[in-house]
Specification:
This protein is an alpha/beta fold. The chain folds into two domains: 122 residues, Enolase-like, N-terminal domain (Enolase-like, domain 1, 2-Layer Sandwich), CATH 3.30.390; 214 residues, TIM Barrel, CATH 3.20.20.120. The chain is built from 13 helices and twelve strands. The strands form three sheets. It has a six-stranded parallel sheet with strand order 5-6-7-8-9-10. Strands 1-2-3 form a three-stranded antiparallel sheet. α1 packs across α3, α9 packs parallel to α11 and α11 packs across α12. The protein is globular and about 60 Å long. The chain starts with a strand and ends with a helix.
Length: 358
């Protein structure tokens, strides 16, 4: 197949529950929809969650530049990835450039799998098995009472695990909210805590120690994502497992975190790890280290990739792209399964795309 055209569209997808973290509040999902049109009529699809309008403009500008490089060339993920890595060797292959490259990689793999008439997981040598997932919608910094009520709603949507954002003004308030949520959902629902890199080393250790014994399954990114030594010190001191990984750009960062023993678990973000190709390269690293692997965002595609892991943990479920998808993912008894349609299963609801166009 040959890439005939790269089409990029911006949409502001409505979020039923805002994302309220220690870093920012996101009320509308700023997405970029990527279509790789080929000469055979097959169109590969992908989307990127860009966090805010400024980030989306930056990534969109990179994608416009990429179009000039790949149009008229083979729709070969490996070749395009090598071409972009060479093109950005001096500029840097992370940030907006890396996210743009990852989005194109996902769309190309979607086209390849569609051409093969198989779901992506089978094209990559796996099978569409069901995997545990957790509800990562909402449950931000909204106070103990509101968090408890929302936690019940989130668990009631068919989940056995939920994500709780912490980072209140005091450690006592963090503990109070965690206890309120635990009391509300009972012992049958796992609670995964995320600090979104808020704390310094000392405060991170203090708050993580305070959460020990509170029935928390993991504590995610308590400190700066690239402070591997600090994360290792916290992981060695607390009983609760430490989770990092969503901000690891590529395999070198993954290996550095592993070498530092920075966490007990790992999660890969499709847009930062390098798309499908980057995820495939990084999967053996987590497996060799014996670290259970989870996903960050992009559940529709991540579920195909996590199914290939020897130590799959959990899929992060967010519904931020659901308003523009023909068939949003369904959670069944706390699990999700890769689409069995050819490709990744991502197809746009064009009426919704027009409605939410930005």
């Amino acid at each position: 197949m040959i890439v005939r055209r790269l089409v990029v569209r911006a949409v502001d997808a409505p979020m039923p529950r805002p994302l309220v973290t220690s870093a920012q509040v996101v009320r509308v999902a700023p997405l970029l929809l990527i279509d790789v049109e080929t000469n055979e009529g097959i169109v590969g699809h992908a989307y990127l969650f860009c966090y805010d309008a400024v980030g989306r403009r930056l990534v969109a500008e990179v994608l416009r530049a990429v179009a000039e490089l790949i149009e008229g060339k083979p729709a070969d993920p490996a070749a395009v990835r090598a071409q972009l890595a060479k093109r950005w060797r001096l500029f840097g292959y992370a940030g907006a450039a890396g996210m743009a490259a990852a989005g194109i990689d996902v769309a190309l793999w979607d086209a390849v799998a569609q051409a093969a008439g198989q779901p992506l997981v089978r094209v990559l040598g796996g099978e569409p098995v069901s995997l545990p997932c957790y509800n990562s919608n909402g449950l931000g910094l909204i106070g103990a009472s509101a968090a408890a009520s929302e936690a019940v709603e989130l668990a009631g949507e068919g989940y056995r695990a939920i994500k709780l954002r912490l980072g209140y003004a005091t450690v006592d308030e963090d503990v109070r909210v965690a206890r309120a949520v635990r009391a509300a959902v009972g012992d049958s629902v796992d609670i995964l805590v995320d600090y979104n890199q808020l704390l310094d080393r000392d405060e991170g250790l203090r708050r993580c120690l305070a959460l020990d014994g509170e029935g928390v399954t993991w504590i995610e990114e308590p400190i700066a994502h690239d402070d591997y030594r600090g994360a290792a010190e916290i992981a060695a001191r607390i009983a609760t497992r430490v989770q990092i990984g969503e901000n690891l750009f590529g395999t070198h960062a993954v290996q550095a975190a592993i070498d530092a023993r920075a966490s007990d678990l790992l999660m890969y973000d499709l847009a930062r790890i390098g798309g499908v190709s980057g995820w495939r390269e990084a999967t053996p690293l987590a497996a060799a280290a014996g670290l259970p692997l989870s996903s960050h965002l992009f559940p529709e595609v991540s579920v195909h990739l996590l199914a290939l892991s020897p130590l799959p943990d959990r899929i992060e479920m967010v519904d931020w792209a659901s308003p523009v998808l023909q068939e949003p993912m369904r959670v069944v008894d706390g699990t999700v399964t890769p689409s069995t349609s050819p490709g990744t299963g991502v197809f746009w609801d064009e009426n919704a795309v027009r409605r939410y166009g930005a």
